[in-house]
Design goal:
This protein has three domains: about 5-90, Uridine Diphospho-n-acetylenolpyruvylglucosamine Reductase, domain 2, CATH 3.30.43.10; about 95-215, Uridine Diphospho-n-acetylenolpyruvylglucosamine Reductase, domain 3, CATH 3.30.465.10; about 220-405, FAD-linked oxidases, C-terminal domain (Vanillyl-alcohol Oxidase, Chain A, domain 3, 3-Layer(aba) Sandwich). It is about 35% helix and about 20% strand. The protein has helices at about 5-10, 20-30, 50-60, 115-120, 140-145, 155, 190-195, 230-245, 255-265, 285-300, 315-320, 320-325, 345-360, 385-405, 425, 430-440, and strands at about 20, 40-45, 65-70, 85-90, 95-100, 105-110, 125, 165-170, 175-180, 205-210, 215, 220-225, 250-255, 275-280, 305, 330-335, 340, 365, 375-380. The longest helix is centred in the C-terminal third of the chain and has 20 residues, at about 385-405.
């Protein structure tokens, strides 16, 4: 990269917002995926829309790739600056720009952290529901919009995309655009907001986000059930959906996940497949929903799972990934985040179990199953070429099975680099149209190039 370019870039921001230091480049080289990092040439911490616009314009003029970064918690390599270039870090842009509690709306800069936002909103009895499970304490709102993040409460409240009312974006030429407004119902124009949400930084840099909020529920009740096998637990979830039961969260944890949690935290959990549920509403609703869930679970052989004094289901759920990693230190996680119609959940869980048995692979199955979202995490030794190849092959087959069931290769974490090879399997010839759309936003292909699909 031209030294002259880096000089011009450095001149656009104060000195403490620009770095070419090795340790900063190493951090910016990776996300939370297990994919190898690629070091950028420089990191710039933007502080305003105007700075973002000037930085992107300079990159456009010099054809330098820009990878936008929030907290870097993406799990599929979306945040790795594949084509070197620069990393544009927005984690210092944390201001609340407008707040309308009576309208249940807020406008924020993209770098604000999810849990910090909710801590502020709690005072007014409000919250932003999507709740990415294990990363809410670090994930930024810009990152959540860009990956359309979802979480334990999305079965009742929806994912991030459903909450975005307006965005301010900077396109690949440096142009600033405002999309949407604070009206909660609109019927004019193409829905460009939905195009940006989930686009993993490939169409624009999001510089401001206006979202809807929800009222904190009057009451909450959490309850856990144990099941004789994984498929019965999955059937219970699909029965609850068929019955129209209003669950705020329903998490599935397979037998192997429960084993792993006991090993990590000594919770003393019964090592059977389990469902953790939460209901929201007034006491009478909590009671009746709890009764209905109990009778559905019991009909399928389930019974109440009692947790040790003071242990809450969501604390246990929070440690799932750590527990899986702890099981075989030094091994690498091979992951997926498939989603499919809820009625196919028992079939999908059975398929994962068959694959694990057939290939003698340690597989951990869990997820926000109320939305038909499932993770089948495997542990494999990267140094053992055959074991590694087999884990990738099984992962590939599981993802293909989800598509066969009319599902998606990614319901949660995005495509990044991890699932790029299967993108066309799901989206077919519409990928050609996506390429044309990208060109409109980013004519020189400088925004997070090489992600989702190749141009
Ligand atoms: C332990 C753990 C648990 C997780 N659990 C969940 C979960 O339950 N649900 C879920 O959905 N995800 C989950 N994730 C994945 C991840 O936390 C989410 O995708 C999160 O939304 C990413 O936010 P971030 O700020 O870290 O984004 P980053 O990783 O920094 O970026 C993600 C993508 O968005 C782009 N981007 C970031 N900010 C902007 C911006 N302002 N403008 C344009 N593009 C931008 C990046 O270029 C990249 O492509 C989990 C991750 C971990 C490590």
């Amino acid at each position: 990269m031209l030294i002259g370019f880096l000089k011009k870039l450095a001149a656009l921001v104060p000195a403490d917002q620009f770095s070419t230091q090795r340790d900063q480049l190493v951090v910016a080289a990776q996300d939370e995926s297990t994919l190898p990092g690629v070091r950028p040439q420089a990191v710039v911490w933007a502080a305003s829309t105007d700075q973002i616009s000037r930085i992107v314009r300079l990159c456009y003029e010099n054809k330098v790739p820009v990878t936008t970064r929030g907290a870097g918690t993406a799990l599929e390599g979306s945040t790795i600056p594949l084509a070197k270039g620069i990393v544009l870090d927005l984690s210092r842009m944390t201001d609340i720009q407008g707040y309308w509690p009576d309208d249940l709306q807020i406008q924020v800069m993209p770098g604000i952290i999810y849990d910090n936002l909710n801590d502020r909103l709690k005072r007014d009895g409000l919250f932003f529901p999507p709740s990415p499970g294990g990363s809410g304490d670090v994930a930024t709102i810009g990152g959540m919009v860009s990956t359309n993040a979802s979480g334990i409460y999305s079965v009742r409240y929806g994912g991030t995309r459903e909450y975005v009312l307006a965005l301010e974006i900077v396109t690949g030429t440096g142009e600033v655009l405002k999309l949407g407004n604070r009206a909660v119902k609109r019927s004019s124009g193409y829905n460009l907001i939905d195009l940006i949400a989930g686009s993993e930084g490939t169409l624009s840099v999001i510089s401001s986000v206006t979202i809807r909020l929800a009222g904190l529920p009057e009451g909450r009740r959490q309850v856990a059930f144990r099941f004789p096998d994984e498929v019965s637990a999955a059937k219970a979830v699909s029965e609850m959906a068929r019955y129209g039961l209003d669950v705020a969260a329903v998490e599935f944890l397979g037998r192997k996940v429960m084993e792993a949690l006991n090993l990590l935290k000594d919770y003393g959990l019964e090592e059977t497949p389990a469902l953790f549920l939460e209901f929201h509403g007034p006491e009478a609703v909590l009671q009746s929903n709890g009764d209905v869930a109990t009778s559905i679970c019991e009909e399928l052989g389930g019974s109440r799972l009692e947790l040790a004094e003071g242990i809450r289901p969501w604390e246990i759920r929070h440690y799932v990934t750590d527990a899986i990693k702890y099981r075989r230190p030094g091994y690498t996680i091979v992951r997926n985040d498939i989603a499919f119609p809820i009625s196919r959940l028992p079939e999908m869980v059975a398929y994962c179990n068959e694959m694990a048995d057939e290939h003698h692979i340690m597989m951990h199955v869990f997820g926000h199953v109320g939305m038909g979202l499932l993770h089948a995490l495997m542990l494999a030794n990267r140094e053992d070429t055959e074991e590694w190849r087999q884990a990738l092959e099984v992962n590939d087959q599981i993802i293909r099975k989800a598509v066969e069931l009319d599902g998606t290769i990614s319901g949660e974490h995005g495509i990044g680099l991890g699932h790029k090879n299967l993108f066309e399997l799901e989206h077919g010839t519409s990928v050609a149209l996506m390429r044309k759309i990208k060109k409109q936003f980013d004519p020189r292909n400088i925004l997070n190039p090489g992600k989702i699909f190749d141009m």
